[in-house]
Amino acid sequence: MRWFRKLIPWIVIAATIAAMIYLPDVDPERYTDYSSLFGTERRRQANAGFSVAVCKNGKIVYQGSFGKDGAGNPIARDSPMYLGPSSEILSGALLYSLSLKGSLSLDDDIRKHLPSLDISIPRSLRDIESLKENDTALEENLITILQIASHAVDLSGRDLEAFRSRISGMEAGQLDPEFFLLSRFSAESAPRSRLAYRLLGTIMENAEGQSFHKLLESSLLIPLGMHGTTADPDSLQGIVVGSGLFFGLAFPYDSRVPIIAAPADGIVSTAEDVARFLSYITAPPSKGIASIPPAKVTNLYQPLMPDSSSGFGWRVESTGGDRRVYQGGSVEGFSSRVVIWPERNAGIAILSAQGGVIQSNIVLPLLTQAAESLLFTGSSPRLFALNRVLIILGISLLVYLISLLMQTTIARSWARNVLEKRELGRLRVFHLFTLGRTILGVGLRIALLFAAPYLVGQFLGTPHLGYHDLFTMEPGSCAALIILLSIGTMRNCSRLVWLYRINRG
Question: pTM for the full model?
Answer without folding.
Answer: 0.85
